[in-house]
Amino acid sequence: MRWLLVLIFLLPGAALANDWAALEEPGAMAIMRHALAPGTGDPASFEIGNCSTQRNLDDRGRAQARAIGAAFRERGIAFDRVLTSQWCRCRETAELLDLGAVSDAPPLNSFFQDRSTSASQTDQTRALIAEASEPMMLVTHQVNISALTGRFTRSGEVLVIRLDGDEIEILGSILIEP
Fold it and tell me: In degrees, to the nearest 5, what angle opens at C-alpha 166 toward C-alphas 83 and 69?
């Protein structure tokens, strides 16, 4: 039993897994790392808007995004706004979720290859959350989520968060495996 407790505390988010009730908390928002896209980072020839130059979702990633969206819809959860990074893997994830109208949000773009924009993009993302009048879904990258929340996320993991003053509070986590 002691090992189980140690494991729960060592695994990021293990104790928060599939906390659907967290979405009912006042001020709750969802922020998601894009679904499975094999590899790390993007090729040197990367271009926004040109998916052939980017790391993209594979069939498992597309299935994962559809399954996550279906799990939300089965619970009657939809969003008035789904904001996404302009990277193709995030946009495709957001569209396959089918949880609301999808719009680009440049602050959600990855800064994996250029960390110099981390602070400004994180501040802009925090401002997007602060200005929201209704719950929304944000689809972005692991580095962005880590900078905002201090938490590492797996591909397809959804964190349920709330802005508390200037700090982001993690209310729960949802992960649907493909």
Answer: 25
Q: What's the chain's Rg over C-alpha atoms?
A: 16
What's the pLDDT score for residue 17?
Answer: 58
| Joined tokens for residue 79 | 């969003």
Asked if residue 2 belongs to a domain, the reply is no
Alpha-carbon separation of residue 40 from 64, 110, 162 (angstroms): 18, 12, 28
In total, how many domains does the chain have?
Answer: 1
CATH of the domain at 78: 3.40.50.1240
Buried b (16+ CB within 10 A) or exposed e, 78-112: ebebbbbbebbbbbbbbebbbbbebeebebbbbbe
In a domain, 6, yes or no: no
Average pLDDT over residues 133-144: 95
CA–centroid distance for 11 within its chain:
18
> Above 90 in pLDDT, residue 13?
no
